[in-house]
Amino acid sequence: MPGRYSYTSPWSRGNDPWFRIGQIDITTTVGLIGLGIISVFVWAIEGRSHEISLKLLLDPQRVQDGEIWRLITWPLVNQASFWTIFLFFILYMLGNQLENLMGRRTFLYLLLAFTVIPAVVVTLASISNSSPAFIYGLRFVELGVLIAFAAQFPFARFWPGIPAWGIVTVIVGLQFLDALQMRSGLHALTLLSVAITALVGMRSLGYAADLHWIPAIPISGNARRESRQRPKRQRRFKKNHLRAVTEFRDRHTEKEIDQILDQVAEDGVESLSKDQRKRLEQHSKELRKRRDS
């Protein structure tokens, strides 16, 4: 199938920003990573007490007591470590791809789904569980982005040539083994919720066409409006780019012909080289064609 084994450059700048700060385009992906970086500094600055972070992470018991904001803020608690920065790097590459494919608004909705749906599922599952359980970190959102990317581009190659579906299978498998080792049912439930949200979400938005066995939930046709408008913007950009190139080429040709005519006026036609005469004749033919048309 076309496009099955390839995808665009992860460093492409085709995404429409929400706004700009200086020379930086704040897209959905960049904004999310920016919040993640801020959360790393907050984690480091607040010290061992972690007063701010403890008020943001997902604590199902506190949510049941009315602290509803935790259903959204829990990914914004990230420890300062090398693996956190590496996670941001992967999220930037893959997030850019999906945002470029889906549009900034639809991609934002998908990220919110990765955040809210698992949090609600874990909170409901904790009603009968009195033992404390905390969930936090962008690693779960990044896992959802990775699964969504692999669902759309299953044969995209990662280093050292491993397809995306293989990478996802290994990472998700290791995460479930880790949850099994810690005997953390809520951790495993979070992983399962993120995976299902990613697969069903991509199918419901009209992507991941090869995964016919994944159910699709009917949603409003407005969800892909932005991605349908993107080809129009690209065609308009190409048209403007072609017009600019044509104008530049005409100005360059006009300058070249003026130099040849100046040489004829000063030294005569005999001073022209073979290439210059050929260029002058070609230009005369082009002028006649434009005049006749």
The number of domains: 2
3D shape: elongated
CATH topology of the largest domain: Rhomboid-like fold
Number of helices: 11
Q: Output the radius of gyration.
A: 28 Å
Largest sheet properties: 2 strands, antiparallel
CATH superfamily of the largest domain: Rhomboid-like
Instruction: Count every beta strand, where a strand is a DSSP E run of 2 or more residues.
Output: 4
Mean pLDDT: 80
Regions with little confidence, pLDDT below 50 for 5+ residues: 1-13
Taken in chain order, the helices and strands follow as EEHHHHHHHEEHHHH
Strand content: under 5%
In CATH, what is the class of the largest domain?
Mainly Alpha
Assembly type of the chains comes to: single chain
CATH architecture of the largest domain: Up-down Bundle
Strand order of the largest sheet: 1-2
Helical coverage, percent range: 55-70%
Class by helix and strand content?
mainly alpha
End-to-end span in angstroms? 43 Å
Describe this structure in words.
This protein starts with 18 loop residues before the first strand and ends with a helix. The protein is built from eleven helices and four strands. By secondary structure, it is mainly alpha-helical. It folds into two domains: 19-219, Rhomboid-like (Rhomboid-like fold), CATH 1.20.1540; 232-292.
